[in-house]
Amino acid sequence: MTKCEVKAGFFVLRPCEAPSAMQCSICERPMCLRHSMPVEGEMLCTECGAVQGDSDTGDEEYYMDDDGAIATRWFYSYRQHYYTETGDADMLTEQGFGADEAAAFAGAADMLDMQDNMGGDDDSADLFDS
Amino acid sequence: MNLPLQSHPALYAAFDVYPSAKGAATHIQQAAQTLFDAAGGGLLYVLGNERLPRFQREGAVEILRFGRLLDNYLHRALAYSAELQAVLEDGLQDSLQIAQFRDPWSGIPLVRRATGRYRTIYEVNGLPSVELPMAYPKIGAATLGKIRALEDECLTRADRIVVPSGVIRDNLARRGVAPERVSVIPNGTELNHGHARPEDAPKRYILYFGAVQPWQGLDVLLRALQRLQDIPDLHLVICCSVKSRRAKGYQKLAEKLGVAERITWLHRLNKEELAPWVSNAYISVAPLTECARNIDQGCCPLKILESMGAGVPVIASDLPVVRELVEHRENGYLVAPERPAELARGLRVLLDYPDTVAQMGAAAQRKIAEGLQWSHANAALQQIHVELISGK
Lengths: 130, 392
Hints:
The complex is a heterodimer. Chain A is α+β, with helices and mostly antiparallel strands. Chain A has 5 helices and 6 strands, in the order ββββββααααα. In chain A, the strands form 3 sheets. A two-stranded antiparallel ribbon of chain A has the order 1-2. Chain B is of the alpha/beta class. Helix content of chain B is about 45%, strand content about 20%. Chain B has helices spanning about 25-40, 75-95, 105-115, 130-135, 140-155, 165-175, 220-225, 250-255, 270-280, 290-295, 300-310, 320-325, 340-350, 355-370, 375-390, and strands at about 10-15, 40-45, 55-60, 60-65, 100, 120-125, 160-165, 180-185, 205-210, 235-240, 265, 285, 315, 330-335. In chain B, the strands form 2 sheets. In chain B, strands 3-4-2-1-5-6-7-8 form an 8-stranded mixed sheet, with helices on both faces. Chain B starts with 9 loop residues before the first strand and ends with a helix. The model of chain B has no long low-confidence stretch (mean pLDDT about 95). Classes of the chains: A alpha+beta, B alpha/beta. The interface between A and B is large, with 44 and 61 residues.
């Protein structure tokens, strides 16, 4: 049986491995009911859902957190923010970049590459391939 | 970081996921192994993902992977860079004799700490200041200027620079890099002497394989195919190195052009799965576009080398980077870039003359055998490694 490939946890990310119920419409990973959420009519894994940002669909109360309790999208958005932003402000400054400049580097192309890599078979296109 | 890293004489650093089936990973494998053979071991520092182990040890070689889930390219690049800096300061910089890197994110911490401790090689395959705007159009000129300054610092401070193409060398010369500091070492491939025909392969097919970035020109090929509708049983096989959803735009274009039924899409084949599709193709297509990445920066397309190594001639865009590898009508066929009608005309000629195609394929394979195998590239690179290590 296919297992859910979405990561559970916050500080220690671990495989969920619950039986999968469906595939994420963006990253195509198998996901269980707990790690799925409806966004704009599509079922996404909680990680892709978090990346979709604040596009409010009214569905954010729809899924459960890792302990099985009803949670909001906040948990995964905050986790995404934590892994994305924490500790990087100094590095930007050190190399002479501003936070506003970094914003230009967030985008669908980049995230798709990341998700492909997270998908695990590692042969995703690299935008910077020779 | 509490990792039990050994003392290493060599470091190879690349802001790329390794291993993978991408061209970059093939290049990394060849170059890093050559470096570690010359130095007697080393550390490979690359990008990872959630499925690859953070740390691996195989004899005298260790692999350390940066694996934070950062979805912002700049954050990821700088965090990767900061971790490399920490590894160097943790003790690696004291044992290093030589370090080779592929990008400024790896290069900045390396060249700033070298200061006579170890020698450095900048392997310039692509420049973020040229390629990033194609992926992130919102990057401002000032930001690009800063990235360019990081590249310039690496170019200035590295002991040697290695590029896979004369076009890249000329580009660097325009940026003020003295040509004598630059060694041109083209990419390589292996000779592929034929595989059993894939069971589901069409009888005669033209092949496109690789990724689908805009500079690859796949849309030009689809538009050319539309002009060949009168040829019966003509098939295009696209071995696409990305998931189907990444190629959705091209699949929709194929439907719009009415050629979808003539196309077989295969996604994310590994090397072993791809090789039979390459070696049994009638001809391979590399419709590279006339963009800054291909014209000003330069490249050395592995898809062209790998087709030639399989004895399959390539019909490709007539660009300086391609002319370094392909001689028109000798071992391949060149057409004006971004002109579907020209590409269609070239394909039509080649489809009409199978004997000529076979001769060109044999000539292409000879050209690879004579100087474009990985063994050739590695020997040239190893000479530089030995010079730098012994000169220390």
